[in-house]
Write a structure and sequence with these properties.
single chain, alpha/beta, Metallo-beta-lactamase, Chain A, seven-stranded mixed β-sheet, 14 strands, 24% strand, globular
């Protein structure tokens, strides 16, 4: 399984992109920085997009990619929970901001939205996909993706703490998990369903207690203006847990 981090931040600039993770060039989880990261040729290789939740930095390029596929007389499958479908069709692909290309034409739609439910495994483009409910300010799911060879990656999307029930459902070799801000903002971010390095430490300790091991850990969804501070605190967490933790970056490639 080849994984490329297209975007790993929660603010966009010339050098930072919103969250989007590509798997084997055919599947993407979250579309925040999707179309701006890929050529048209690479976009046309995609078969499926999995969305974790409805917030703008995770769904923004969904409208753009569906529009592009419509221009190519083709389509792509979108997967997520029902609240995400409602937001996209009400506020993006609604015939005002963008044409209603999702689910069109009705008799044989090119791009389709497929509703997923937490803990209900689906087979998508040859991968086993398990959505798991996360602890965020709006309904949200993370995804465990299992390759045909049995390799597993879990991406949390946005989440706050208290994830022991989530850890019971998964067993990845790679954990891609959010850490949005440094510890001095812990109270603020915890209320909004996000992690800081100290909260991440607690969740990784919980993972180890529940599962008996720690997977490879990559951190995403950083505030770029606070990234140096986040990294310094993550380095301390890594030392305290005696386990490597890596900050993701745009274009980072991982292999399982």
């Amino acid at each position: 399984m080849d994984i490329q981090l297209l975007g790993v931040h929660n603010c966009e600039s010339q050098n930072t992109k919103l969250t989007s993770i590509m798997i084997d060039n055919v599947m993407v989880i979250d579309s925040g920085g999707l179309t701006s990261s890929l050529s048209f040729e690479d976009q046309q290789k995609l078969k499926a997009i999995l969305l974790t939740h409805q917030h703008y930095d995770h769904i923004r390029d969904t409208a753009a990619i569906v529009f592009n596929f419509a221009m190519w007389n083709s389509g792509i499958n979108i997967y997520s929970i029902l609240p995400v479908y409602e937001i996209i069709t009400t506020h993006f692909l609604n015939g005002i901001v963008y044409p209603k290309f999702l689910g069109w034409p009705p008799e044989n739609p090119r791009s389709k939205f497929n509703v997923v439910e937490s803990l209900e495994t689906q087979q998508i483009e040859g991968y086993s996909v398990l959505p798991v409910a996360m602890k965020h300010s709006v309904p949200s799911v993370g995804y465990q993706i299992t390759s045909p060879s049995g390799k597993k990656v879990f991406y949390t999307g946005d989440t706050g703490p208290d994830l022991a029930e989530c850890w019971e459902q998964i067993a990845p070799q790679l954990l891609i998990i959010e850490t949005s801000a440094p510890d001095r903002f812990e109270k603020f971010y915890k209320r909004r369903g996000h992690l800081t390095p100290n909260l991440l430490k607690q969740e990784l300790a919980s993972f180890r207690e529940v599962k008996g091991y720690l997977p490879q850990v990559v951190v995403v969804h950083m505030n770029p203006g606070l990234e140096d501070e986040i990294k310094a605190e993550i380095d301390v967490v890594s030392e305290e847990l005696n386990h490597p933790i890596t900050l993701g970056y745009e274009g980072m490639k991982l292999h399982l």
